[in-house]
Amino acid sequence: MRMKVSFLMLCLWFGSVAAQTIPADREALLNGEGMGQASYAETNGYPGPKHVLELKSELNLTPDQTKKAQVIVQGMTSAATIKGEEIVEAEEELHSAFKAGTVNEKQLRAKLERIGKLRGELRFAHLQAHLKMKQILTPNQIAKYNELRGQTEAKHEGH
Hints:
Layout: H1 2-18, H2 26-30, H3 39-42, H4 49-54, H5 56-59, H6 63-100, H7 105-136, H8 139-148, H9 151-157
Helix pairs in contact: 6-7
């Protein structure tokens, strides 16, 4: 009986390895999701535009602030989705090179540098949106945002 269970577990494990998506964060990349890339901004008083819009009533956003936040979200999502697609393509190329057994160290370095650059550009898009958002809100709105998002304690603990 143990042998059957072990064999079954082994089959399930191989099946899950074979079914892995490349890259592991593929869906989030293709959807322009933040994936915690702007956590430094968020935890240090730079509000996230998506969360600002979710809290627009509590923050008493003006119609102008709401419109500006929507523009920031649209720009960030568009840029993040484009970069995400580029990252997925680059990661798939890397995977294919290993699968084909054709990768050498020079190619590996070049592929990884490209992926790193693309991921840096993606993170820039998310962090830039937080910078822009902070310029639109008043200090009182930022304080309220931090309170609502539970950032006040985290901000003071690290300083």
